[in-house]
Predict the 3D structure of the following.
Amino acid sequence: MQAHEIDYKILGDDIQLVEIELDPQETVVAEAGAMTYMEDEIAFETKLGDGSTPNQGFMGKLLSAGSRLITGESIFMTHFTNQGLGKKKVAFAAPYPGKIIPIDLQKSGGQIIVQKDGFLCAALGTKISIHLNRRLGSGLIGGEGFILQKLEGDGKAFIHAGGTVIAKTLQNETLKIDTGCIVAYEPQIDFNIESSGSLKSMAFGGEGLFLATLRGTGKVWLQSMPIRKLIQRISPAGKNTRKGSSSILGNFLED
């Protein structure tokens, strides 16, 4: 199914929203609860699945929606359609402070891999499915980088990230990153999770036990403030945390 051609505008700085302009009968699909405001004559309906395969049977939709539970998302998605005669607008906001990244899937080879809670909204016709990283390192720790989302299509999709977003294009290069800082990457990039170094570095370095490794040629998007770090900083248990506390022995070094 060819995706609907939608126009958009990103508003705000540190806490952004995306305002999407729909022509008559155009539809955008979004995570449940992401809508901020919409103009009159835009109708919305909660459905199983993303609507990318309209002839898919009920069981197919149920299996597709059920797989989203593994990523921590709702099995339902909301479809917003302009039922009026003129252009109408609907806006969506990310669930925490950061940036919204517009992705033209056609320019990324029709596919992109996204962190498991990174999808915000997309033009109708975009397929949103689960992506399991089968690399051994990712599977062993079973956390960030193991269960991801895959967006497929030829239209525009919008993902959200925490803090500042950095877009990098790798040219047969290797990049090592904090496991929570990856937002998205093109599918030709090889992604694995590896130990961060020697036992001494892992124990005292403050960078955690594992790092994500991206290798190859293609585009990647990174975030400066993963949601888990934000929660650690504002939670009562982590409000006095300094860099050393992210290592194995950090809590003892704080005393």
Notes: Residues 5 and 244 are 48 Å apart (CA to CA). Residues 58-70 form the longest helix (13 residues). The domain at 7-254 is CATH 3.60.160.10 (Double-stranded beta-helix).
